[in-house]
Prior knowledge:
The structure holds three protein chains of three kinds. By secondary structure, chain A is an alpha/beta fold. Chain A contains three helices and eight strands, in the order E-H-E-H-E-E-H-E-E-E-E. In chain A, strand 4, helix 3 and strand 5 form a beta-alpha-beta unit. In chain A, helix 1 (20-38) packs across helix 2 (52-68). Chain B has two domains: 3-52 and 373-422, Urease, subunit C, domain 1 (Roll), CATH 2.30.40.10; 54-361, Alpha-Beta Barrel (TIM Barrel). In chain B, helix 2 (102-115) links the parallel strand 7 and strand 8 (119-124). The two termini of chain B are 27 Å apart. Chain C folds into two domains: 16-135 and 291-305, Rossmann fold; 151-282, Aspartate/ornithine carbamoyltransferase (Rossmann fold), CATH 3.40.50. In chain C, the strands form two sheets. In chain C, strands 7-6-5-8-9 form a five-stranded parallel sheet. In chain C, helix 6 links the parallel strand 5 (158-162) and strand 6 (184-188). The radius of gyration of chain C is 19 Å and the shape is globular. The chains are: A alpha/beta, B alpha/beta, C alpha/beta. Chain A binds chain C through residues 78, 80-82, 86-99, 127-128, 131-133, and chain C through 1-4, 21, 24-25, 27-29, 31-32, 35-37, 39-42, 44-46, 70, 297, 300-301, 303-305, 307.
Amino acid sequence: MTADMDNPLERKDEKLIMDAGDIARALTRIAHEILERNKGVKNLALVGIRTGGVYLAHRLAKRIHGIEGVQVPIGELDITLYRDDLALRKNQPILRKTSVPFDMANKIVVLVDDVLFTGRTIRAAMDGLMDLGRPEEIQLAVLVDRGHRQLPIKANYIGKNLPTSRDEQVQVLLEEDGENDRVVILRAG
Amino acid sequence: MSIVIKGGRVIDPGRFVGIADVLIEDGKIAAVGPQLSVPVGARTIHAEGKLVLPGFVDLHVHFREPGFEYKETIQSGSAAAVAGGFTTVCCMPNTSPVNDNQAVTEFILERARLAGLANVLPIGAITKGSEGKELAEIGDLRRSGCVAISDDGKPVMNSLVMRRAMEYASAFDLTVVDHCEDLHLAEGGCMNEGLISTELGLPGIPAAAEDVMVARNLSLSELTGARLHLAHISTAGSARMVREAKARGIPVTAEACPHHFTLTEELVRGYNTHAKMNPPLRTWTDVQAIRDGLRDGTIDVIATDHAPHATQEKQQDFTEAPFGIVGLETALALTLGLVEEGVLSIEQAVQKLTSAPAAAFGLKKGTLAVGADADVAIVDQQEQWEVDPSKFRSKSRNTPFVGWKVKGRVLTTIVGGRVVFEASRVER
Amino acid sequence: MSLKRKDLLSLAPLSVDEIRLMLDTADSFKEVTGREIKKVPALRGKTVVNLFFEPSTRTRTSFELAAKRLSADVINFAPSSSSVVKGETLLDTARNIEAMQADIIILRHSSAGAAETLAQGVKSSVINAGDGWHEHPTQALLDLYTIRQRGMDFQGLRVAIVGDVSHSRVARSNIYALIKLGAEVRLVGPPTMMPWGVERLGAKVYSNMDEGLRDVNVIMMLRLQLERQGRAQFPSIREYSRLYGLTAERVKLADSAAIVMHPGPINRGVEIAPDVADSLSSVILDQVANGVAVRMGILYLVSGANS
């Protein structure tokens, strides 16, 4: 989409990529795709990656409930302890809780994250999930795929493919954090 | 060889203060007066603007020989002494073996002669092996050269033994020196008992451990009439009791160490083993009481309790590390610090380093009177310097004053008419 | 916030925020310790050395388990007095260990200040697992964690610490932390067991146990060092037990929801009656279980601050 300099949602230093309507429509489409691909909700579970992915997982679950009338189980995953850069960082990131209150055996787990970039977060998330149990299958849903993968990882459901340069910053801002729903690129400098 | 010290400010406590020349001939003070003529062949030392003082007398050093030569020897200790302006030092008997007999006393004196620097005068033990049980052969110790008796470091706990020691020593006109510490009260302690020991979780030594023994010793001195010298008093209570005892005519003298009138227990924070000494560093109230005692004459003497320990010993954890610090090479500057702060006059300060300690042990030292041994210290009262233990003459470097910027330095030390120390021109 | 300290030596200098960060981090690890696979890769490739100069199976095992659950390599080093060469200082020993590329050294030592001395001399992170009578910060943190787990708020909380406070590193760490967090700390025991001036740290001292326990929310019992009997601290175990032993009767003096804690090992029938130790109000086993999560959190936090 083209950035509109008059758009009131846009701040001076950000370039708007998706607004609230775009996000809502993308999530609705992803919910349908998940159901289509898995032929319904049987054995389906959603696990959001903290923190943005958790909010998106809840929104997807709500849509699935709207379509199928079934509440799918939701888990919340903190991947900090599985990061591959933990030993390199100056300060330890704040740990948040992981909560996957269902048995993953035989489940089709859809991992949900806001932005897919290098793929390292997803690698950590898969390791984290595997330590919690043995899912039948793991699928990946993301709101934005911005490219620049460093690992052979591919999303099954994508809200928007967004070509970016490596040094740009993509942010997904959501109401759950007190923001207006939007996806932006922060301009360098 | 003769020496003339020209133009310095001579301070000979109780005798003379003023600008004068000092003539030394045949190892003795030959004359003190204005514009003395210089004999042919005499060496002239210019001391204009400097202080010319009797060499200092330290009643309390540990030279560790025999037995602990890795910490200090009589040679290295003597070198440290003269570098600090001390021309006479009295060394405590807690060597290995303990100086409780003639042979050890003679050995020390022989080593001191070989070192040829300071006058090293041994202090004999009160009891055999300093075990606090049987009296040592005090008569023999006196005859072979001991100038006082003490079981320093291992106080005599048995009051009857202490009483007998005092009675017996008075027959030889020997001063009895006691390190006042009730070993039961102090058991296991390694710093002053108070809020800081509570916070740090370190076993404390209460002020009362010193006070009860000061009280006992004063009572015994009163009972026996024996001359008593209290080593390194550190508490307000000790100072108060000594003041009162002196007022009542008890023949007691007392000493304080530079660290006890300069530092407080705060220095222990961080588990600094250079702040570990016995008696321990006390509170600011105590420091002030010690300063008051020095000012009003309750405390006669400034002594160093020079206690060398090897670096690796002080690197142990706090409870394991040994007590004590070296003091000979910092004592003058710290004493002059009291002058700077207005606690003591310069005459008082010099007296507490010279004539007062000599009098406490009855030594013919600490004066520039004509005919006295030519033991002299020439001092620059203004020179500033930074304490750098790597430059110490002592074998050991255990000082809490490292890095301190201090004022007052010894330029020249003369013992028996010989120049034994000159601060090198390079250093200055 | 994140922890800026490479070491955990004592709780005395920590801010309230730092203490809360440690408790919050422990919370995340509590979840990990509840999983089937109780291991995370956070400290993979790091080496943790347990350097215990004093024997302590509990604390050492707890740290060992914590480090292993973080995927660190763990070495246990217990220099007995005979195997440490006479004259080798703590620092010498530690430098040797550091040369093995230890990232974190956990030190238990009989001498107060040993951990601080060590931390000044090595680049590795140092965690104090008890130094003399000084502090035992991780024990106090697990006590705090256990209190918080029970839904208690520290602000205004009344905590009685009963026993030999003067020789207790656990008591010191708890006093510092609880007072910082706004709790009212009561120290209960005979005056022979109270260190000089301890009330000036902000605690109240009670020599009468019944008065000290009245309406408290937490009763923290200290272990009685039986070998101190006869050394003028207390005349006999019998009398101590009568005056300062925790009985069911005495628990009733406290708040009805009060919990009873003990750092272990318990002298049953001495400082604490067996039925009390086993009763519902006792959270002693929770303390042990929480110890691993708390120590995982500390290992995680200091390893970040030192990289």
